[in-house]
Request: fold
Amino acid sequence: MRSDWILDVLTDLKTFARANDMPALAEQLDDTAIVAMAEIAAMKETKDGQRHDGEAAVGTYFGGFGTS
Reply:
């Protein structure tokens, strides 16, 4: 199921808040969108980790140099 639809809803609410002189609400909705993006990314990472060998992801690889 597509879970990023919530970002569209938050954007609509933020647009409404700005158009109706509610700057504090608009700013809070910006923060809420950041939280939503982080949680959506975490859910996708967990799902991707479960697809590999049936195990949940335990961390994120940030790259780097090494000798293997």
Observations:
- The chain has two helices and no strands.
- The radius of gyration is 18 Å.
